Amino acid sequence: MTAFDAFLLGILQGFTELLPISSSGHLVLAESWLQVGIPADLQSFDILLHVGSLLALLLTYPMLWWRMLQSLCTGERPHRHLLFIIVLASIPAGLAGGYFEQFIAVHLRSLSFVGIGFAATAVLLVLAERMPQRKDTSRISWVHALIIGCAQACALPPGLSRSGLTIAAARFLGWRRESAVEFSFLLAVPVIAGASLFTTKDLLYGVSLPSLPIMGAGILASFGSSVIAILFLRAMVRRFSLAWFALYLIPLAVLLLA
Fold this sequence. Notes:
Helix content is 76%, strand content 0%. It has helices spanning 3-18, 23-34, 42-60, 62-74, 77-107, 111-128, 142-153, 162-172, 177-202, 212-236, 246-257. Helix 6 (111-128) runs parallel beside helix 8 (162-172) and helix 8 (162-172) runs antiparallel to helix 9 (177-202). The radius of gyration is 18 Å and the shape is globular.
C-alpha cells in the first residue's frame, strides 16, 4: 500500500462513514480495485481510518460532549441523560463486534455480500422516509435507544451502513429527520472509539499494518472528508429526503450482484 492509496481510502472512508452509504462496503470495493494487500488485516486498517471520522465528530460537537462529561460531576439532568442514552445504545454494537468481528472479517468481505448490504440499506432508507415525522426527541427513552443501538449492531457487515441503519431505525420510530441524523452522529463516537482501541490492542499481537506515515495520510484524509460529510448531511436533511441515497445504492448493488 502506498501513501496515495491510503489517502484515497481515507477520503472514501470519511465521506461514506457519515453518509448513509456504508464506508466498510466502499472500502472493500476500493481495496479490491486498488489491489492493495495487507494479508488478512485490511479490516484493522479500515477501522484505524475511522480515527479521522472520530476526530471530526468530536470537533463538530465539542461543547455538547464537554457538557455531557461535565454532567457526571454537576448532575445536570438533560446532558447526563443523553450521555446515559448514548452509552446504552452503544452496548449492542460493542457486544456484536466483540463476538463477530473475526467472522465478519473472514467470511463477509465479499463483493456479493457488499451488494446485498447496499440493497438492504437502500430499501430501509426508502421505507423509513415514508414514516411521519412526529416524535419529540427532547428526552430520548431507553427503549428507543436500545432499538437504534440494535440497528447499529446489525450494520457491522460491509455494505450495511451504520449511519443508514441508525437513521432508518429512528425514522421508523417517528423521529424527525434532523434529530435522527444528529443522534446517529453522536452514536458513532463510542463505537468508533471502542473499535479503534480494540484494533490498537491487536497491534501488540502481530497484526501487520502499513507504516505510520501511510496510516497518517489515510487518517488525515478521513478527517477532512468526514468534516465535509457532516456539514453536507446536516444541510441536506433540512430540505431533502434521505431516500435519494437509494438512487446511488441500488444501481451499485445491482452491478455488484450481476
